[in-house]
Structure formats: structure tokens, C-alpha cells
Design goal:
Elements: H1 2-34, E1 46-54, H2 64-68, H3 77-89, E2 93-103, H4 107-121, E3 127-130, E4 135-136, H5 138-144, E5 149-152, E6 157-160, H6 171-177, E7 180-186, H7 194-197, H8 203-228, H9 232-241, E8 244-246, H10 247-252, E9 258-259, H11 262-272, E10 282-285, H12 286-289, E11 305-313, E12 315-317, E13 330-332, H13 333-345, E14 351-358, E15 360-362, H14 363-377, E16 382-391, H15 393-396, E17 403-406, E18 411-413, E19 417-423, H16 425-431, H17 456-481, H18 485-491, E20 496-498, H19 499-504, E21 510-511, H20 514-524, E22 532-537, H21 543-562, H22 566-583, E23 588-591
Helix pairs in contact: 3-4, 8-9, 13-14, 17-18
């Protein structure tokens, strides 16, 4: 009997091993095919088809396995901007058909894409937009409205009903499980602690969020009004009094130019570019056109100088990125400073642009990054370009720069800090039956222990740490922006601002995207327009690193899918937030308390 069970186990083990080998071989082959360096062929009389959906990353580090399986974006924000620049100059491209739908509300990134679309239109080539049968929301219409004509399928879904900002609060949950949070903050608007101590927005927080929401709404309405030849007040009336949810409603209200299917839209484009029935209208998808060299489109890149664009993305944490399996959602101080040091010591690099997309994080890690930026500034021009969010620690690291650029819809500021202590004694003792005893050499050897309530002397020390960090933050900003500490305090206190408002109060120098920031850096380095090239850092992973990371990425995707319904996935996100909060225990944080998602 034991012989049969051993034999069965051996057979099963062999089959499993064989399956793994076959799977690995298949993924390896698909990876090599996907990563093959081939230049797409673009025929005359072609239309660039741009389908934009979901979240648009700043840049894409090619993951051959995930791309081959269709699970990863094949282009990022930079690729989209460059593709439109090439399409405007490429004699083989007659026009662009944009298909934006179900877009994530990354408003600063969408703003940069929108500007690139408007710049493309200056070439005189037609731009049509078609939402098709997909879900079209305000994010998608923000881009689609730039087109000469905007179409949707007759039964399409079209949402135009204003914006909402929602945040989650854990106070009741923590109370139920027996965890007492204590938050120490510097700044009336530093609302990070509210997530753990309240069940709703404070008045200060509600005021700042309402201001941002209204600024976002005004920008959107004015942008769409300019593009559509309508008034912003009429558009606001639609959102307030006649919100649309179908393409037919949108067409009746003048938000669309027609209800047509895709083949009809392509026929209209064919006529628009002057082709008759005997001429074929070819199409090239964006995912292929991004691989067309700029020189093939008639654009020559200069090589007399170089501007390095260093990406600073994610929550700021101390230490190093964890190898090829590192979390791309974090900005690790040691890894980033190493990348920046390489750019500083590289003789080929004439200037540096730091592209920030970060809600902040560890104050000490932010300061370590700031130090490396200051050292770089001593040797080369440094310009900051803020993306969707560059707030709290994300603003801290921006203060040592020759110039700061932000998009109009960038979320920035939040100059303030907080610390949090979780007392889990009730959870551990009353609910789990655990008891604790301690022996110590000094009265505060157990400082900020989660197994006991926060004592008065501990809170006093904690407040001192937070206050000193806030004062240091104010001093850095005051020195960088040519203000007094008192002046900075008036606009700080943890308050968040849009890029436009940040310009008005002197927290940034110019409203503009990455392209303008690169141009300013080149100017400071005395590089003439068109004579230099850009290089993105940190470097993209090698094929082996991509291959290794792909297995973890696919495992994460499978795990996310295994979570089940959207509700279950949302609960998992909240659990992850609480897990991150536990890691904040006893540390001073310069971080936004929530993800800014305006929908």
C-alpha cells in the first residue's frame, strides 16, 4: 500500500514539475516574441488609432510576459505625448481617431494628454473621438472633447453628472476591535489622523477638499466649454439639472456630434482626409506606433546634450527597493538617492528633471532624498515637475530645486506632519486573552508601546518630535521660496492645493507639464532647443529582471482576481491601508492621509 502511495506521489510530482517546465518555456518564448525589437511599418494614408482606458502610468517598463498576455499597459504618459508629436509630423499619418473610455481620474496626467491633443490639432490634421459602446465618464470626455467631432454608439453609456470625492474612516472599526488611536499633528488642515479618529470630515478638511473639488470642476467645465464652443454655465446646468447617463441624452444636449458605429466614423474620417473609394484608409494602433522611431516620422533629436528625467513615484519609505520584486508603489530613499547620484556623476548629463508623483511618507526618508537633490543642484541645474500628486513629503523633496513646475490639476502642498500611536491593549487582552508584563531599566524604555495606553509624558515627547519636524519643514520651504517662516505657516498647516492655487501663493514657479520642465532645465544648462536628448532614470529592468518580476506580478494579479467581487477587493484595499497605518506606529509622517480620487 505504501508502495502505491509513493508511486502515486512520484507520478504527481513528475507531472507537476513537467507542467512548470512547459509553462516556463511557454512564457519564455512569448516573452522573447513580445520583446523582439521590430520597427512597425506605417503605410501611407494611415490613421493613428488611440485607445486610452483605465489607469495611465507615467512610463512603462516593458514586461514582455504581462504584455504578451495582455495584462500590462504597453504605453505610458510619455509614450502618448511623443506619439502625438510624431503623428503631427509624420506625412504617412493623415489624422487621429481617439477612443478614450473608462479612464481612471488621474487629472494632472489627463491634463498633459489633453494639451498634447490640442498641440496635435495645430498641425491641421483631423482629430475624431469615438467612445463606442464603452462607458464614457468625465475623465474620458475631458480628452474626447478636444476632437473636431465627438461620436458615440447609439446605445452607449455617457456620464456627465459632476464630481465627487469620497474618503474612508476607520474610527468605528478600531473602536469595535479594541484599538485606541492617538494622533499628534502639526497644522490645522493636516487631516491624516482623521482617518483613524473620526467617522466624517472635520470642518477644516471639508473646507479644503471642497475648494479643491470646485477648482477641479471649474477647470473641467471651462476646458470643455472652450473645446465645444459652449458656455461653462450651460455645462454646469447640465450637470446640476439634466445629468446625462446615455449617449442619446448627451447628443440631444450638444455634448456629442453624432451617434454612429465605428465603421461609420472611419468612413467619415476617410472622406475628411480626401480619400475616395479606390483608396484604402489604413490604421495603425497606438501600441504599435509608440515603437516608431521619431526619425521615421521626420523628427530629429539632438545629441549635443542630455537632460536626465528621474522619476520619484510612490509612498516615501526609508531604505532600498527590494530588488527585482520591489514594490513599484514606493519611493525608497536609498534606491532613489543612488539613481540621482548616478545622474549627478554622469558627465553626459547636463541637467536633471525630477518627476514627482508622491503623496509623501517618512519625514526622515524625505529629508535624505532632499539632501541628495541639494548635492545635485550644486553641480547641475535641477528642475521639479509635479505629476498627479506631489504633496507633504512629496513637496518636501521639491524644495531644493532651481524651478518647480506643476500641472494645473496637480495636488500639492500639504506642508504639515503627523504621528500616530495605536493602543491595542484592549484588543490583545479583552478579545484575545493576552497579558503583558515588563522589566525595564528606564522609565521610558517602553516608549510608544502598542500594548499600553499613551502616557502623558509620552504624548508630550511625541508632540515635541512632530512639532520639531514641522518647524524644520517650514524653514526649508521658507528658505527655498524666499518667504518668512510665518508666511509659510499661513499657507501650510497641512493644507492641500491645486497646481494653479499653488502658483498663486508662491509654492511653485510655473504651471506646466513635464515638457516645459525639461525645456527649462535645458535652458538653465544653456542647451539650445532641439540640440539635446532626454534619458529616463532609473534604468528600465533587464530582460532577466523583467522575467523574474513577471512571475510575482502574475501571482498578484491572480490573487486580486481570487478576491472575488469588487466589494471584496475594496475591503482588501482598506485592509492594506490599515496595514500601512500599523507601520506608521511611532514615526513622524509627512504624508497625505488618503488617495486623491475625484470622480
Amino acid at each position: 500500500m505504501r508502495f502505491l502511495s509513493t508511486l502515486a506521489a512520484s507520478i504527481i510530482g513528475t507531472l507537476v514539475a513537467l507542467g512548470v517546465i512547459i509553462l516556463f518555456g511557454f512564457l519564455l518564448i512569448t516573452a522573447f516574441i513580445a520583446s523582439a525589437d521590430t520597427t512597425p511599418r506605417v503605410q501611407d494614408n494611415s490613421i493613428l488609432k488611440m485607445e486610452l482606458t483605465g489607469a495611465i502610468p507615467e512610463r512603462v517598463s516593458p514586461d514582455p510576459i504581462a504584455q504578451a498576455l495582455g495584462d500590462a499597459p504597453r504605453y505610458g504618459l510619455h509614450d502618448i505625448r511623443e506619439a502625438l508629436e510624431k503623428a503631427a509630423a509624420d506625412d504617412r499619418i493623415e489624422g487621429v481617431v481617439l477612443k478614450a473610455h473608462s479612464l481612471a481620474p488621474q487629472w494632472a496626467a489627463l491634463e498633459e494628454i489633453r494639451e498634447a491633443l490640442l498641440t496635435f490639432k495645430e498641425s491641421g490634421k483631423p482629430l475624431y473621438a469615438y467612445t463606442g459602446e464603452y462607458f464614457s465618464n468625465e475623465s474620458a470626455y475631458f480628452l474626447n472633447s478636444t476632437a473636431d467631432s465627438v461620436f458615440a454608439s447609439p446605445e452607449g453609456f455617457f456620464e456627465f453628472n459632476g464630481f465627487v470625492l469620497e474618503s474612508v474612516f476607520f474610527a468605528n472599526t478600531l473602536e469595535k476591535i479594541g484599538v485606541e488611536p492617538t494622533v499628534v499633528r502639526a497644522g490645522d488642515f493636516k487631516s491624516a489622523g482623521e482617518t483613524f479618529t473620526r467617522s466624517d470630515f472635520s470642518e477644516e478638511n471639508r473646507t479644503q477638499l471642497q475648494t479643491i473639488l470646485e477648482s477641479q470642476n471649474d477647470f473641467f467645465m471651462n476646458a470643455v466649454a472652450d473645446a465645444r464652443g459652449m458656455s461653462a454655465s450651460d455645462l454646469q446646468a447640465i450637470a446640476d439639472d439634466s445629468p446625462t447617463f446615455t449617449a442619446r441624452q448627451a447628443y440631444d444636449l450638444g455634448l456629442l456630434d453624432g451617434l454612429h458605429f465605428q465603421d461609420e466614423v472611419m468612413d467619415m474620417m476617410k472622406k475628411r482626409v480626401g480619400l475616395d473609394e479606390d483608396n484604402d484608409l489604413h490604421t495603425v494602433p497606438l501600441r504599435r506606433y509608440v515603437n516608431v522611431p521619431a526619425s521615421d516620422a521626420g523628427i530629429e533629436r539632438g545629441r549635443d546634450g542630455e537632460v536626465a528625467v528621474v522619476f520619484a513615484e510612490g509612498q516615501i519609505i526609508p531604505g532600498r527597493q527590494q530588488g527585482p520584486f520591489g514594490d513599484e508603489g514606493t519611493l525608497a530613499s536609498a534606491s532613489f538617492t543612488e539613481t540621482l547620484r548616478d545622474a549627478r556623476e554622469d558627465d553626459r548629463v547636463d541637467a536633471v528633471v525630477i518627476r514627482i508623483n508622491s503623496p509623501g511618507g517618512s519625514a526622515s526618508a524625505s529629508d535624505a532624498i532632499l539632501r541628495e537633490i541639494a548635492l545635485t543642484k550644486e553641480e547641475k541645474p535641477v528642475v521639479i515637475s509635479m505629476g498627479n500628486v506631489a504633496a507633504s513629503g512629496g513637496y518636501w523633496i521639491a524644495t531644493e530645486a532651481d524651478a518647480i513646475f506643476a500641472d494645473a490639476l496637480t495636488i500639492t502642498g500639504s506642508i504639515g506632519v503627523f504621528g500616530v500611536h495605536f493602543n491595542a491593549s484592549e484588543l490583545l487582552s479583552d478579545h484575545l486573552g493576552l497579558t503583558f508584563d515588563r522589566i525595564q531599566t528606564s522609565p521610558l524604555a517602553d516608549f510608544l508601546s502598542p500594548t499600553q495606553p499613551l502616557r502623558a509624558e509620552e504624548r508630550e515627547l511625541f508632540e515635541t518630535f512632530v512639532g520639531e519636524t514641522y518647524d524644520a519643514f517650514l524653514e526649508r520651504v521658507a528658505e527655498a521660496r524666499g518667504k518668512t517662516v510665518e508666511e509659510v505657516h499661513e499657507i501650510a498647516q497641512g493644507r492641500v492645493w491645486t497646481g494653479t492655487d499653488a502658483k498663486d501663493i508662491g509654492l511653485i514657479d510655473e504651471v506646466g507639464g513635464l515638457e516645459l520642465a525639461v525645456a527649462r532645465a535645458a535652458e538653465l544648462a544653456e542647451l539650445e532647443p532641439g540640440t539635446f536628448r532626454t534619458r529616463e532614470l532609473p534604468r528600465k529592468k533587464t530582460f532577466i529582471e523583467q522575467l523574474a518580476a513577471s512571475f510575482e506580478t502574475q501571482a498578484r494579479v491572480l490573487w486580486a482576481r481570487a478576491l472575488g467581487s469588487p466589494t471584496e477587493q475594496k475591503l482588501h484595499e482598506h485592509f492594506e491601508y490599515l496595514r500601512q497605518a500599523e507601520q506608521m506606529q511611532g514615526s513622524v509622517q509627512a504624508r497625505l492621509p488618503y488617495d486623491f480620487t475625484i470622480e
